[in-house]
Amino acid sequence: MRSSALLCLASSLSIGFAYVPKESPGCHPLWTQTTEHIPSQTLKIGTSKNGVREYIFDLPSNWKPEQPMPLVIAFHGKNNQNYVFREQTQLSDPKWNNEAAVAFPKAIDLQWTGDPTSPPLAEINDIEFAGQLIDHITQMYCVDLRRVYAVGFSNGGGLTQLLACDRTLSSRLAAAAIVSGAFYLDYALKDPLFSHCTPARSPFPIMEFHGNEDPIIHYNGKATPDGQTFDIANWGPAWAQRNGCSADQVAVPLVTQQSQFAVYSWNCGSAKDSVSHHQIEGLGHAWPSRRKQNDDSLGLGATTFDATPAIIDFFRGHTLPDITKAFKDEL
Predict the structure, then answer these.
(1) What distance in Å separates the CA atoms of residue 133 and residue 138, rounded to the nearest whole number?
(2) Sheet hosting strand 175-179, strand order edge to edge
(3) Do β-strands 271-280 and 260-268 pair in parallel, antiparallel, or remain unpaired?
């Protein structure tokens, strides 16, 4: 019994349940650790293949240099600046998030891997860059490695999907969230990307928000000037199948003062709402927010629903599995 349990756990380790320590190297630096609380700063990271990048880095209001904190990596949309995306999402607003650091990286030429006009992976690989960025931040700051998350909008949402589908990167992420995700069919891209999805573990917690009136990334997968995208209605069932969730979706129609939306969620065994999709009635291509946005013409106006607190709450509910506990339970 003992040996079979060890073999079973060894098999789990090979598919992504590797032990993840809570404290990053930044919790035990080899040099003097900074104790100055700089709420927001623009930093740079140099990579051998993916160029010199810059990112905005926001520390949480309750930051303590020796206390492991969650980390959120937030990817802007195509042709959008990271500082604009920061303002639009309010992901660092202590009203909703007073515990997690947030990094807003800037894409080369303001487009990420996964867009039809992006360079091929052999030239620029933003999936690889995301891992380098996590390494960079966790070396400098004390981060809870069990609570690293990714979120993105449009083209940045497409990249977030690719991270969740990547066997290496998904093993480092506790959960992911996507807004107006741009998921292109293979023929529209220089490399086949979105048709390949092999997350490191099952279930992998993920959520997506999409307006049914999106004029850029159409809900029904209608072709765009850049190429055809996947039908968003199939996104949830596809992830439910990957995660081994129940076939029946739970639809919760919610009505606010002016906008209506439905939440479709799938339960994966004992893991509740591991996959959820918010279909927002009347929303265009925008981050759902009650605040007026500078792209309200594409969004078809503000909503009375804020995606940011829903995403932060979703992240709070998910931590990377603790393999050491599994050993104790089985032995």
Answers:
(1) 9
(2) 40-47, 51-58, 101-105, 69-75, 143-153, 175-179, 206-211, 271-280, 260-268, 250-255
(3) antiparallel
pTM reported for the whole predicted model? 0.88
Q: Is the separation of the CB atoms in 221 and 290 below 8 Å?
A: no
Q: Among candidates 85, 172, 169, 154, which has minimal Cα distance to 118?
A: 154
pLDDT(291) > 70: yes
Contacts of 19 (CB under 8 A, 6+ apart): 13, 323, 324
Residue 290 Cα distances to 12, 87, 209, 261, 293, angstroms: 43, 13, 15, 14, 9
Q: Pairing mode, if any, of strands 271-280 and 250-255?
A: unpaired
The sign one gets for the Cα dihedral 19, 24, 27, 28 is positive
**What value does the mean pLDDT take over residues 196-225?**
92
The answer to whether 176 touches 212, Cβ cutoff 8 Å, is no
E strands, the chain, in order: 40-47, 51-58, 69-75, 101-105, 143-153, 175-179, 206-211, 250-255, 260-268, 271-280
Q: How, if at all, do strands 69-75 and 40-47 pair? A: unpaired
Give which of 181, 204, 203 is closest to 193, Cα–Cα: 181
Cis peptide before 116 (omega within 30 of 0): no
Which two three-digit tokens encode residue 116? 């039809």
Q: How far apart are CA 262 and CA 134, in angstroms?
A: 33
Banded model confidence at residue 270, pLDDT cuts 50, 70, 90: confident
- DSSP characters for 116-173? TTSPPTTT--HHHHHHHHHHHHHHHS-EEEEEEEEEEETHHHHHHHHHHHSTTGGGT-
Tally helices (H) and strands (E) across the chain: 8, 10
The model's confidence at residue 143, banded by pLDDT at 50, 70 and 90, is very high
